[in-house]
Amino acid sequence: MSLFNVYPLFDITPVKATDVFVYDENGTEYLDLYGGHAVISIGHSHPKYVKAISDQVAKMGFYSNSIKNPLQTELAKKLVSVSGCKNYELFLCNSGAEANENALKLASFHNQKHKVIAFKNGFHGRTSAAVAATDNAKIVAPLNAQQEVEILELGDLESLENALQKNDCCAVIVEFIQGVGGLDQSTAEFYESADALCKKYNTCFIADEVQSGFGRSGEFFAFQKFNVTPDIISIAKGMGNGFPIGGILIHPSIKASFGLLGTTFGGNHLASVACTTVLEVIEEEKLMDNVKVISAYFLEKAKNIPQIKNCKGRGLMLGLEFNEPVADLRKRLIFNQHIFTGSAKNPNLLRILPPLTLQKGHVDAFFDALKTELK
């Protein structure tokens, strides 16, 4: 049986990874500045993480959510202490798309409305409502297009209020730093006004922190730079450091009831231990402080590359924008310099999403390699 051919693949086969490095079957070392789509937060094969998962799987890997799982409770407590999001409740699932799907569904249950407002260049996943709220018509099937979604310009408060005034919107969903779309951000005025408008018109304000959460922006959540109180916060990517896990944080104004949401694998024993360990390492190794230091260093180094037109993003969720497409540059960085970077919807943008353990020496190596390939 062959694999369903939906991924264009680079001819590289990783077999091992440690911290910020990946090694292929030939023993070639690659500097990982992409982290597998911002998934690797505490570094590949972190010893504490490996031990925690190994110890847990030796005891119990899985049982259903119909029994008590103290590991979920422990995770929820640790998430509150590290994130600072007091009073929120946690529902666990398996991925970012699932997180956003459950967020949108819960919003609709809560206020009994059906329409969703999202923003241009936003990406929220590939499941039914999440993909309908994603600004990419190529991945929206006719089945998904039945969802009623209005996609607005990011930052357009007038259009947002005009849409909310119709009183049929269950949710406004926004990435505070856009990921796949190309690292664009709006202003404090927009985010704070959008939050206020949602509260005025009984609409759930959803912060999509799937990619930007868990310290990647320098704050635990990217929205925490602003004076907003999301009704629902979606999380995934870096929360498991490679183990599949997602979730939503739910404001206490939204009430639970039996059967409202559900999942088979969400919050299983291994996933819970993986995420709790990630949170412990983020705290113990002061990785959010490291993000801020390394981000400032990276952006300063970028100023010395005249071909870079613009630097986008925040923390270690960054984009280097050039005056021309970067697809060939990205390939040369991989095959000539052995450095992984990422692409975006913006063809001129090189995405930088490394493990949060990145050090200045790694940044120096990247810019030396970049200069070589730009000659």
Automatic annotation (TrEMBL):
<dbReference type="InterPro" id="IPR049704">
    <property type="entry name" value="Aminotrans_3_PPA_site"/>
</dbReference>
<protein>
    <submittedName>
        <fullName>Acetylornithine aminotransferase</fullName>
    </submittedName>
</protein>
<dbReference type="InterPro" id="IPR015421">
    <property type="entry name" value="PyrdxlP-dep_Trfase_major"/>
</dbReference>
<dbReference type="Pfam" id="PF00202">
    <property type="entry name" value="Aminotran_3"/>
</dbReference>
<keyword id="KW-0808">Transferase</keyword>
<comment type="similarity">
    <text>Belongs to the class-III pyridoxal-phosphate-dependent aminotransferase family.</text>
</comment>
<dbReference type="GO" id="GO:0042802">
    <property type="term" value="F:identical protein binding"/>
</dbReference>
<keyword id="KW-0663">Pyridoxal phosphate</keyword>
<dbReference type="InterPro" id="IPR005814">
    <property type="entry name" value="Aminotrans_3"/>
</dbReference>
<dbReference type="InterPro" id="IPR015424">
    <property type="entry name" value="PyrdxlP-dep_Trfase"/>
</dbReference>
<dbReference type="GO" id="GO:0008483">
    <property type="term" value="F:transaminase activity"/>
</dbReference>
<dbReference type="InterPro" id="IPR050103">
    <property type="entry name" value="Class-III_PLP-dep_AT"/>
</dbReference>
<dbReference type="InterPro" id="IPR015422">
    <property type="entry name" value="PyrdxlP-dep_Trfase_small"/>
</dbReference>
<keyword id="KW-0032">Aminotransferase</keyword>
<dbReference type="GO" id="GO:0030170">
    <property type="term" value="F:pyridoxal phosphate binding"/>
</dbReference>
